[in-house]
Amino acid sequence: MTSQTKKMTYCALMIAVTFVMTTLIKIPIPNGYIHLGDGAVLLSAYILGPWGGLIAAGLGSASADYFGGFGAYVLPTFLAKGLMAFIFGYFMERYPKTNKLFFLFPAVAVMVTIYYISEIVMYGSITAPFINIPFNCLQGLVGIVVALVLYKPLERFRLMPAKISTK
Fold it and tell me: What HEC string does 30-95 produce?
């Protein structure tokens, strides 16, 4: 299998894994549900790197919203989860020796911020989306726990960044 074929196959697989982990187990909360999908979002970045993670996490999560009846959230979810994966993957690639836990929290913070800004636009209020911030933080924390539990067993599937020759 060529390198490009492997990347595309892993990307398609992570889109499906993200979709399934988002839709399979749903714990209802007042404004939606808690799911395991953010763990798959972070694992997409860990396995595929920043750009592949962005595509897999964004498409998998946005598809789950679309097919789950949350059509208004498709674009915000694509942006929030895609950038969450991109930021985690970028810092993992840029600083490979640093503890992975250090990069998980900024990625979740960006996701929470994007949802907040999106909900300002959707609700037409700056204060109304404040109620969702704790739930989005809890969702991100669940994703961090899932990623920390699964990243070591999935390490062998990680696509290492390509070495760029200067010749």
Answer: CCEEECCHHHHHHHHHHHHHHHHHHHHHHHHHHHHHHHCCCHHHHHHHHHHHHHHHHHHHHHHHHC
DSSP state for residue 18 in the 8-state scheme: H
Chain Cα centroid distance, residue 65: 13
Q: What is the dihedral of CA 132, 136, 142, 144, to 10 degrees?
A: -160
Q: What SS3 class is residue 29? A: strand
Q: In angstroms, rounded to a whole number, what is the distance separating the alpha carbons of residues 63 and 19?
A: 7
Tell me the per-residue pLDDT of 21-63, one tens digit each, with 9 for 90 and over.
Answer: 999 989 998 878 899 999 999 999 999 999 999 999 999 999 9
End-to-end CA distance of the chain: 26
